[in-house]
């Protein structure tokens, strides 16, 4: 296993659906000062539950990956090959199914009840949760495959270092010790041109205003 860098500048969080990747990535970005990017909000989805085409997703992912500093909360299969080689550290959340599923159920019901916006301004409904292509279906369909990915990445010498957590308590202990980045992320009112999502005029990542 490759040594874990003390102060990585590009960090990818990856895990089974419901494991808390986005929350962990947000906590890491806040602690380190690195700019944060969301696979769902910034790359994958448009309002109205329309998913961006694969080519556009890959273009945006390539723009994010090419930057010197970032935290990304997941990686879709359609563009994972772009961001993984650029990561200086992969943080894998390899939690038991019961834990990730229970978290997913609680989170999804809360979002429905509170009408929380997710995936770039969309809202969950009971109908979507019960649909054939719901996030619950995705959890069961992808769980074993993602666990295989963890194992393959750890044994592949060409991969970035992979730090695996199997308990939330261990992740929290690690997050509490994250060193601040040497160049802290500064919130800005208006993003620079280099920080815009291609073709949208919108700032990439949740670093704006955080």
Q: Can you describe what's shown?
A:
There is one protein chain. With 210 residues, the protein is an alpha/beta fold. Helices cover 41% and strands 13% of the residues. A five-stranded parallel sheet has the order 2-5-1-6-9, with helices on both faces. A two-stranded antiparallel sheet has the order 3-4. The protein has a two-stranded antiparallel ribbon with strand order 7-8. Strand 3 and strand 4 form a beta hairpin. The protein is globular. The C terminus is likely disordered.
- Mean pLDDT reading: 81
What is the first-to-last residue Cα distance?
34 Å
- Provide the structure class: alpha/beta
Give me the oligomer status.
Answer: single chain
- State the strand order across the main sheet: 2-5-1-6-9
Largest sheet: 5 strands, parallel
Beta-strand percentage range:
5-15%
Question: What's the total helix number?
Answer: 8
Indicate the radius of gyration in whole angstroms: 17 Å
How many strand elements?
Answer: 9
Principal-axis shape equals globular
Any low-confidence stretches, pLDDT <50, length ≥5? Answer: 182-210
Helix content: 40-55%
- What string gives the helices and strands in order? EHEHEEHEHEHEEHHEH
